[in-house]
Design goal:
With 583 residues, this protein is of the alpha+beta class. Among the domains are: 1-40; 197-424, no CATH class; 433-491, Arc Repressor Mutant, subunit A (Orthogonal Bundle); 504-583. It is 49% helix and 14% strand. The strands form seven sheets. Strands 9-13-14-15 form a four-stranded mixed sheet, covered by helices on one side. Strands 10-11-12 form a three-stranded antiparallel sheet. A hairpin with a 5-residue loop joins strand 6 and strand 7. Helix 2 packs across helix 3 and helix 8 (271-313) packs antiparallel against helix 9.
């Protein structure tokens, strides 16, 4: 036996050459094997592990799974995705209808039915084998620093093999590309153009509202105010990325109402066909779901029968095996009973959803599409789905100076419509007093005090602006409210108005008449001097320059006698009333 000494230079050189030659031989063998695999893959003959729903026949050709339940479930999966337009919503539909999705472990023949998950849905939608396309080399492995092989995706143009229509599929190639496009659009949350699938939110223009200033799609923001949920269309992409001010922020309620009224008015002639199509779609959906549940019952029945046959064939004296088979048989029977109960319960729910009352209501809705559109029981998602077939996008431009928003609607056929919607008032604008009320208060201040004006407004049914607040519907005008209203809006006070008309204060009137203030008060009581109230406790006095009352001795000429003579003179000369005397 030949031995080598690693300490010897010649032996060490010989060992290195042999190792290099051996490594080269292994590389050549591996390259030849890899080349053979690639040649077979390019011809579509290399047998790859198939996804759930496909099997190899006796000749090695790819065919659909002979299990009818598997085929119908996968077909229903793609139909549901084309209807709802989202992988997560497809998972919710399967969860709501109690359906399970077939799954087969790698290199195993046994198929199990499990609840559909989002990862399974995405993996199924992204697999081109379901479109009948033979593919190979969609991924490659990269060794990391810790020695692990990590899979990486290749671009479509870099796939090692791609043969369309190589075997039967569940969908066409065009449908597969459309599904990929929908998934790509759903995942682009920050792109310029994004038409997201309809969801449960109240915003009607979800994914279709475009900012008229920057061209980006609006975000949606929901806020709960005064016990109700409000939707807002907000364009703040530039603020988040570049720190610029928010482009636009528009309340959604008036926009949705205007667009909904336009759509309802335009679609009214086709309401009959649309309602019947909705009813047919609901019935077909329930029938397909019931057929899938029936397949689950049939599978459970077959498993129970098989367990029964196994139990009947066992030797009764072998109790160890008989007990195990009896337990398995009972377990299969329980599974069968649960499947039947689930189907019956789902059938009852479907019948409740399509009973005669709902059928009659759908038929009644055919006469008027507006009734269907405004029906409170119609989910927001379905209303958005109806809108998606009609409207391409809606461009919004807010006009703050005018208090309106310009709405430019672009329909699928290319037609356009321009609408104007009134922007909702802010909290300050909602509680602000109406201009006509201010004009009335300004007019009444010429002849009434604040308390008298408050009584007049309340008697006419006019309420303060703050009555729109929650719990403030019973508030009324008071003297303090009227005074604050006049002050805040720059109205001239009643005192200033009376002063402009020449009214005098008590000291000024007393000086003008040459009497004491107490005498002035007595003259006012007896009607010799007129006073005008400018609030509930203060007055201004009217003293005419033409006929000033003269001061007399009250002992010989009492005030009551003077007033009586003045009234008699006034009655004898009605065309020339005495100024400064209250009649």
């Amino acid at each position: 036996m030949c031995s080598y000494n690693p300490a010897s230079f010649n032996d060490r050189l010989l060992l290195g050459l042999k190792g290099t030659v051996s490594e080269a031989e292994l590389h050549v063998i591996k390259a030849r094997l890899r080349g053979g695999i690639l040649n077979k893959a390019r011809r579509g003959e290399y047998r790859c592990p198939l996804p759930t729903g496909f099997v190899y026949d006796e000749l090695g050709n790819v065919v659909l799974d002979p299990d009818l339940q598997v085929r119908e479930t996968i077909a229903y999966f793609f139909e549901t995705f084309s209807r709802v337009g989202s992988a997560s919503q497809t998972v919710r539909v399967f969860k709501k209808e109690g359906l399970r999705f077939p799954s087969r472990m790698r290199n195993e023949k046994l198929i199990t039915f499990q609840p559909l998950t989002a990862s399974t849905a995405l993996r199924t939608l992204n697999n081109p084998r379901y479109a009948g396309t033979y593919v190979y080399g969609r991924r490659y492995y990269r060794r990391t620093a810790d020695g692990k092989n990590v899979p990486r995706k290749r671009e479509r143009d870099d796939w090692l093999a791609c043969i369309p229509d190589a075997h039967p599929g569940y969908i066409t190639g065009e449908q597969f590309q459309q599904n990929l496009k929908i998934l790509e659009i759903n995942g682009r949350g920050y792109e310029v153009a994004r038409a997201s699938p309809p969801r449960e939110g109240a915003a009607l223009l979800q994914g279709r509202a475009v900012c008229g200033l920057c061209g980006r799609h609006f975000r949606l923001r929901y806020a709960t105010r005064r016990g109700r949920q409000e939707a807002w269309y907000i364009c703040d992409r530039a603020q988040g990325t570049r720190g610029e001010p928010c482009c636009q922020s528009i309340a959604g309620a008036p926009i949705d109402e205007a667009v909904g009224a336009l759509v309802a008015a335009m679609v009214t002639p086709t309401a009959v066909e649309l309602a019947l199509e909705i009813r047919r779609e609901i019935e077909a959906r329930h029938d397909e779901a019931d057929r899938l549940r029936l397949r689950a019952v049939e599978r459970a029945q077959y498993a129970a029968d098989l367990a029964q046959r196994r139990f009947m064939l066992v030797d009764p004296s072998n109790r160890l095996v008989a007990n195990t088979l009896e337990y398995e048989w009972n377990d299969k029977l329980r599974t069968l009973a649960n499947a039947r109960e689930e189907r019956e319960r789902s059938q009852q729910q479907d019948r409740l959803a399509l009973d005669d009352a709902i059928r009659d209501r759908l038929i009644a809705m055919t006469a008027d599409f507006k009734t269907l559109w405004r029906d409170q029981s119609l989910p927001n998602r379905e209303r958005k789905r109806l809108l998606a077939y009609i409207v391409e996008d809606v461009t919004l431009v807010k006009l703050p100076e005018e208090g309106t928003t310009r709405i430019h609607v672009r329909f699928k056929a290319g037609r356009t419509e321009t609408l104007m919607a009134q922007n909702p008032k802010s909290s300050a604008q909602q509680v602000k007093t109406r201009p006509e009320v201010l004009e009335l208060v300004d007019k009444l201040l010429d002849s009434h005090t604040c308390s008298e004006i408050a009584d007049i407004l309340n008697n006419q049914g006019i309420r303060p602006g703050g009555c729109v607040r929650p719990g403030k519907a019973d508030i009324r005008f008071t003297a303090l409210r009227v005074s604050y209203l006049a002050q805040r809006n720059g109205l001239r006070t009643r005192r200033d108005r009376l002063r402009d008309r020449g009214m005098l204060t008590r000291p000024e009137a007393a000086v003008r008449l040459g009497i004491h203030e107490a005498t002035l008060a007595s003259w006012v009581r007896h009607g010799l001097v007129t006073r005008h109230a400018y609030n509930d406790y203060a007055y201004l006095y009217e003293v005419s320059d033409s006929s000033l009352p003269a001061k007399h001795c009250s002992r010989w000429d009492r005030l009551t006698d003077r007033v009586a003579r003045m009234q008699a003179a006034q009655e004898s000369r009605p065309s020339h009333p005495i100024k400064g005397v209250v009649v």
